[in-house]
């Protein structure tokens, strides 16, 4: 593979350039993600749906996502308007918006990680592979957090939804015993 002139520089300069590229890609994809139409975020897709193997999100609890997720930064205000977060939305009414935002964040982090192979085009192979792995390593935790949060939100949403086959008790259902 022929390398571009930039690849002839020092390793430190290459790592700095690649790191700057990652930052630029992350910011650009993050901003573009804020422009995703709401209709694309209303329902889970092949990418975002919770799979059977995830055991409704319990697998993420087993790997400790609930313990370390608060230690990672949250960037949700780079595009038009603020994105809702748990702190800004309370109660059941906020669940649909939070579900949309978990999907948006998952799409963004998957797209950022998917840009990794582009580094193989302009960096020496060893550094390109390191950058691909770094893209996966830096974005995978955020994808796991989104999937964990979405599974929990879906469970809460389902548990509070009234069962259409269950009717409310009426006076006839209550036995009154009089002495």
Report on this structure.
The structure is a single chain. The relative contact order is 0.16. Helix 1 runs antiparallel to helix 5 and helix 5 packs antiparallel against helix 6 (125-160). The longest helix has 36 residues, at 125-160. The chain has one domain (11-159). The protein is elongated, with a radius of gyration of 23 Å. By secondary structure, it is mainly alpha-helical. The chain has helices at residues 11-33, 38-41, 58-62, 65-68, 95-114, 125-160. The model is unreliable at 1-5 and 163-179 (pLDDT under 50).
Q: Brief description of this entry?
A:
This protein is 51% helix and 0% strand. It is mainly α.
Query: Tell me about the biggest sheet?
Result: none
Distance between the termini: 95 Å
Q: Give the C-alpha Rg.
A: 23 Å
Give the number of helices.
6
* Total individual domains: 1
Q: Give unreliable regions as ranges.
A: 1-5, 163-179
Helix content percent band: 40-55%
Overall mean pLDDT stands at: 82
What proportion of the residues form beta strands (DSSP E)? Answer: under 5%
Q: Give the overall shape, derived from the CA principal axes.
A: elongated
Structural class: mainly alpha
**What is the number of E strands?**
0
Helices and strands, in order, run as HHHHHH
